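Q: I'm writing a short explainer about tRNA dimethylallyltransferase for a general audience and would like to include a description of its predicted shape. Could you first generate the structure from this sequence?
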Amino acid sequence: MKHTNKYLISIVGPTAIGKTALSIKLANYFNTEIVSADSRQFFKEMSIGTAAPTTQELAAAKHHFIHNRSITEDYNVGTFEKEAISCIQNLHQTNNIVIMVGGSGLYVDAVIKGLDYFPEVDKTIRTQLNTQLETEGLEILQLKLKTLDPIAYNTIAVDNPQRVIRALEICIGSGQPYSSFLNKDKTKRSFTSITIGLDADREIIYNRINQRVDIMIDNGLLDEVKALLPYKNLNSLNTVGYKEIFNYLDNTWTLDFAISEIKKNSRRFAKRQLTWFRKKQDTLWFDYLTPIETITSKIETIINKKNPAE
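A: Of course. Here's the predicted structure. Afterward I'll give you a sentence or two in plain language.
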């Protein structure tokens, strides 16, 4: 099979590891642009708490999908997939290499290999399941899923009510197991993906996260969240760094406790990110301090192997 000579270099890894800095270096090296796959940096009202690229970083390389939406807009991974693929194809007309960066595993996967597509089901099913969750609790729904789709029960995060409800509504609405729609042959892409993972010892990752949270507070996170109080029930704001400050603003928590919870929840998030990204066999992992020359050399070796000189 002839390899396409168009490449998407995707940079993944836990929060605060240095993905943004690496993406800019790579974009400058390959003289190309950056597509962000961070599901919270899309929103222009959320800058500090999402550690979006700074004005200087945005000026250092052209970025796409940073602050291009409002939190009041309904935006999901399916829409992002379509828009990102269209953007990458446009960029590939003038450059064989495009950089993608982001810690949102589902959004990264959507671009690289496409989403699992599920049938449309009656919306009232979800309403009924939500009511059942409130009145009878999660365990009842978990047992129902175990009966209808034991494979899904054993593979999805069954302690997450939203995941359980999503699987159940597909089972009930389609009459087929939710798991039967997973991992079908995905869309073939017009580019080859190379995934670069950044990692460090857990202690280092956790220290970097703690430092980053302190910097966010110094940079005005409190004021950013205060301005978003009227929207606190939106799904986009049910996010680490925002939900904890809401608890401080409504006098549920002290500020010190809210900050310590942001750090703790960010560390947990980083752990989940690493679990997700480490499942991908073909990721090239580098220590976060690896010189850029080592990484570019590895990328060029791969590209040259796939596209030997005629």
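A: For your explainer, you could say: The chain has two domains: 7-116+185-306, 123-181.
Q: Perfect, that's easy to follow.
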